[in-house]
Write a structure and sequence with these properties.
By secondary structure, the protein is an alpha/beta fold. Helix content is about 45%, strand content about 15%. It contains 9 helices and 7 strands; from the N terminus they run αβαβαββαβββααααα. A 5-stranded parallel β-sheet has the order 3-2-1-4-5, sandwiched between helices. Strands 6-7 form a two-stranded antiparallel ribbon. Helix 3 links the parallel strand 2 and strand 3. The longest helix has 19 residues. The N terminus is likely disordered.
Length: about 220
Amino acid sequence: MQTRSSPDSTKKGKRYYPLYIDLEGKKVSVVGGGEVSERKVLTLLRCGADVTVISPTLTERLSNLSKNGKIHHLKKVYEEGDLEGSFLVISAVGNKGINRKVSREVESSSSLFNAVDDPELSNFIVPSLINRGRLLIAISTSGVSPALSKKIRKELEKRYGREYTLFLNMLKGIRKRLLRDIPAERKRKKIFQHLANSDLIDIIKKRGVKAARMRLEKIIRENL
């Protein structure tokens, strides 16, 4: 997979295709064992990835994860061949020379690669992320201004609070029930639209989940 931009694409600016990737059970290698690597590893573990960290040293938290069998640790400086079989690779070592070596190895494979401090070597970038359970909102300026991405993220965090986590948990349960009990797709779609456009989120925020569940059941009865 080509990781470097052609002179023409660099001049015009890269165009990134937004997508979410299923990492469940997939091998992910992280080069570096510092605080940046720690943040990346914790996110990867939440997504179910099989994580290997390549570094002579680890933060205390990464060390504990290794001792508890949550991650694999190659206690060494990165060498060519260490990334074999990796679906995704992140270099967070803060060393441009190592970044280039990692990039060359990844370039001959089909691995996805991100160098934390060197987007030009990467074939994907990591957006600023808002995580509300099953709601994921990604913000990116295509690498032009991470500071602006952070600003927008903070603004959206205020707009989309914990109530969205609770709302989506409710919808997950009701979706299974409706798929089971209502064979007519048109009728199910009508109910789902009413739920999405209802006042359930405000009710969760102001009166709690129990009141929202009562309102949800009423909406379903009214639209059967």
